[in-house]
Fold this sequence. Notes:
The protein is mainly β. It is 9% helix and 41% strand. WD repeats lie at residues 161-203.
Amino acid sequence: MEGEQLHCNEGKWFVNKIDSISHQGLQHGAFSQSAHGTYIAIVNSQHGIDVHSYDVEDNELKLVMTLEGHRDAPTCLSFSHSTEPVLLISCARDYVIKWNVTECLINQHNDVSIKGKVVMQTPSAGVTNICWSVEDDVVAICTGCDIIIYDVESYASVHELRGHTDTVTCAAFCPHYQTTLVSASVDRTFMIWNSSSGELLYKSSIISSSPIDQVVMNDFKEEFILAFSDGMIRSYDISAESTFSQLRSVDLDKLLNGVGQVSGDSVAVAAAALSLLPLSVSLDLSETADLLPHDDIHSVRSVFSSVDLLVILTSSHIVVLNERTEETIAVEKLTDVNIGYISSTSLCVLPSESDLGLSNTVQCLTSRLFDSKLQLTHVSPLSVYKAKQATDCALSVISRMPADPGSPLRSSLVPKQTPKSTGKIKSKAKRIDKKGGRVLDQPVVHKTKIRSSGYATSHSKSYL
């Protein structure tokens, strides 16, 4: 493996790039990373699962063990949210297996055989996606048009959620309401379920002409994000009293065209979002303490203390947006930071106490489009945001509540005055040619024949 550190674009990006060993059996969905990026699971060419860990000192991925139990190559891997113990679900055409990674490492150290627990036999329709609940007690298995809620402790099926008319592509549990599950499908609709009772809470109408590729929960706000295959990204409200209405939308097609990054037929490929990551980064107020009003610093501290960002990875670009203002912070070609075109990716946020010593750092695990190589990259969106703020001369703040009636901010908000009607209708004077007695400058309407359907085309006007 090779490791290198790159500082690109005048210090805007911090990229820590590690090229991993090529895996011949690599395919979409065949790799995953655990919470906080502790472990990385990759399917090898012998249908096994290589578990790697990142070594900070040597700046490389190190193989710690190999999990063997499938007769076919696993197509789905998913780590649990918990870090103690670390659990992994793998799915192939034969079985769905649960692995206790923490226990397997102990068994390997004590020269004990490593075994996983078969959860269920894989349904005939196959498995397209697996996601863990917030408490890691159940998993949602997307198979065909259905979703199976499976208890990983009792190894029993709890519910089968049916309602989609085409293949379910993804699902995600809400971190704010633990029994709420959002699913999306090729049928271009999303559904919201109660995973505990199996009740369908909401079914959307057809909201796009393109299938929904993924659904991502926002850990910081009661929202979820949908990514469509045509490059549209939409945020929806999932709060308790909401009607699940759309909040914001981003068109990656227009965004990349607007900055001149792509054009023509390449837009459809480049604009499709492969991975999304909502991120709330903390700001150091000591750098701007002199600019804040000292008499009321606590009231504005919450506004300046953090910023909500959305990191988007496409096959050829990385995009950072300010989620509050929908402002584009940065758009960067992956080839410019020596990552290359990618076919699939996984994103996670490293904790502030990470061994890397970098807070608010995003760890990107990507597979390349042309050479089946995996690459681990560390990106700092906070550095990008600070560089963007440094180039802006004016200070902009998005208010969280309406201005007071006596506030100067309302000085320009004057109601529009409409003229009062006198009740008299002014008639237009007709210009008449005295010699010929013809009316001048009046429209002549050419009426068309009414068709048998009852509809007629609009009248065409001309002037004499």
